[in-house]
Structure formats: C-alpha cells, structure tokens
Write a structure and sequence with these properties.
Layout: E1 20-29, E2 32-42, E3 47-51, H1 58-66, E4 73-78, H2 83-88, E5 92-95, H3 109-115, H4 129-141, H5 157-171, E6 175-179, H6 187-202, E7 206-210, H7 217-220, E8 223-228, E9 230-235, H8 237-240, H9 243-250
The protein binds adenosine-5'-triphosphate.
Length: about 260
C-alpha cells in the first residue's frame, strides 16, 4: 500500500507495547459519573468498535484519551506516551462527532485536511510539497477532490465526515479515534470509510471507532467494547452482539422492551 492511508510512519509505530493502554479511567462532570474505572488495551493493527447507548460515555472516553477531558483517576498511554505528548507528536488523530464542530468557521475542505499535517510543518505553518501531496491523496481517498475548495460548512453531513476522516488519513496517525463516523452517511460513504480504516489497520494503525450501526460491526471491526460507564465486555464483535450482552449494554430486556 502507499499514500497517507498506509503511512503509519511515526517513531512510535516501531516501539513495542500496546498502541493504546487505558487504566482505571474515572471521569465525573460535576455530579455525573461518565466513566467508572475504565481499562482497555488495544494492540497495533486492530480496529475496535466502541458500542454503547446514548450517554454511556463513548465521547467522554475519546476526549479523555485525547487529554481534553481531565480524569479524576486513571491513566492513558498512546504508544507509551501521555495524551498531550502523543497529540504533539501526531501519533493520535481524532474525528469528532459532527455536533462538536463549528461548521461556520471559514475553512475550506482543503484547509481542514491540511490541519492534519500541522505537526509536520515548521512554526510558520508553511506546507511543504510532502504535506500537499498527503492532503491531495487523502482527499482522493475519500472522494472529495472536486470539493476541496468549498467551505466545510457548505458540505453535506456525509461529506463533512469524509473530510474529517481525510484529515486523520493525512496525519498518518498511529492511533485514530473516530466518534460516530457513520452517523448520517450513506451506504457508499460508509463503505469508503470502512475500507480506509481496514487499510489503515492492515498497515499497522490502530482504530477505536464508536458506532450505532450494530449490523455493520462484524464487517468493520476485529474486536468490540460494550461500554456503559464501565467496560461491560471486550471481545469479538460476535460476542458483543449476543442478545444477552446487548441487553446489558442497552438496558433492553430480551423481548426488546426498553427499561426505564
Ligand atoms: N460537558 C458535560 N457536562 C456535564 N455532563 C456531561 C458533559 N458531557 C457529557 N456529559 C454527561 O456524561 C455522560 C456521558 O456522555 P457522553 O457524551 O460521553 O456519552 P456518549 O456515549 O458519547 O453519548 P451519545 O451516544 O449520545 O453521543 C452523559 O450522562 C452526559 O449527559
């Protein structure tokens, strides 16, 4: 493979140890307990689906891994580095939920994808030919080349998702976190993103991806985590999709009724 999708070229990718190691993470927002003693380890080259009901703590987990939410307790190591160091080194990339992004910001699609290259540029942020090439290739991979100069806010929901996935690809991060990249995207975009993530993992990258699309989970992921403030299960997608496991995660009884 060639190009940014396969470019897991950071120094960390040559180190031993897990790609992501989360231990005993506990996060409160005021009185709300969002994460309760969450531990998980992801090996390099794996895609892990993060499954849980609304409010189960998925976004909080991503933010704590990125170091933008401060845990009460616990630790995060990304290729052995603390979140801030890993962010600075470009080792970890994050595709946020659409609701978290200010779409009125006057940036083109090209600008957004180029943001993935900031870590590689000098302090004046002058893109070099390698940065431009990585951005062009990432745009091509997500089929947005024709819209590169459009304002990000003037894209459809699925196109916006693809633009942020392109930013992660251009960055060539070893560990990519995606918060619901399939929400509001059509089947074709979903297939494009899935294929790109599989290529990333085949090149040694590690992906943690939250999704509400349970049916697509086995196609997407090698393993799955069921989250309900705590890790209820970390196993194969097939294990996670067993009715009794889903019932625990989603508060459903086996006849499909929702508990209050
Ligand atoms: N900034 C905040 N202030 C207070 N409470 C918050 C804040 N952000 C999240 N929460 C609460 O923390 C809990 C976990 O929220 P989080 O956004 O992590 O869930 P989620 O699994 O990502 O949900 P969804 O599937 O709806 O995106 C919820 O109870 C939520 O209401």
């Amino acid at each position: 493979m060639s190009g940014p999708a396969a470019s897991v070229g950071h120094a960390a990718s040559t180190q031993g140890g897990p790609a992501l190691d989360v231990r005993g993470l506990t996060v409160h927002y005021g009185d709300v307990l969002a994460l309760d003693d969450v531990s998980l380890t992801l090996r390099r080259g794996t895609i892990c689906g993060l499954i849980g009901m609304n409010g189960s703590g998925k976004s909080t987990l991503f933010k704590a891994i990125m170091g933008t939410v401060k845990p009460d307790r616990g630790s995060v190591a990304i290729a052995g580095l603390a979140p801030k160091q890993a962010r600075r080194a470009g080792i970890v990339g994050y595709v946020p939920q659409s609701e978290e992004v200010d779409w009125s910001f006057p940036l083109s699609v090209y600008d957004v994808v180029m943001m993935g290259r900031y870590g590689f540029q000098n302090f004046m942020r002058h893109p070099r030919p390698a940065d431009r090439a990585a951005v062009a290739e990432a745009l091509d991979r997500v089929e947005l080349t024709g819209l590169a100069h459009r304002r990000i806010g003037a894209l459809s929901g699925g196109q916006r998702k693809r633009a942020f996935v392109a930013r992660g690809l251009a960055q060539g991060a070893d560990v990519l976190l995606l918060d619901e990249p399939f929400a509001g995207v059509d089947r074709r975009s979903e297939a494009t993103i899935t294929e790109l993530l599989r290529e990333l993992a085949a090149g040694g990258g590690t992906v943690l991806v939250s999704s509400h699309d349970l049916e697509a989970l086995p196609r997407l992921a090698d393993e799955a985590i069921l989250l309900l403030r705590r890790v209820l299960l970390h196993g194969s997608p097939q294990e996670a999709l067993r009715p009794e496991q889903l019932a625990r995660a989603f508060g459903l009884d086996l006849t499909g009724r929702t508990e209050e």
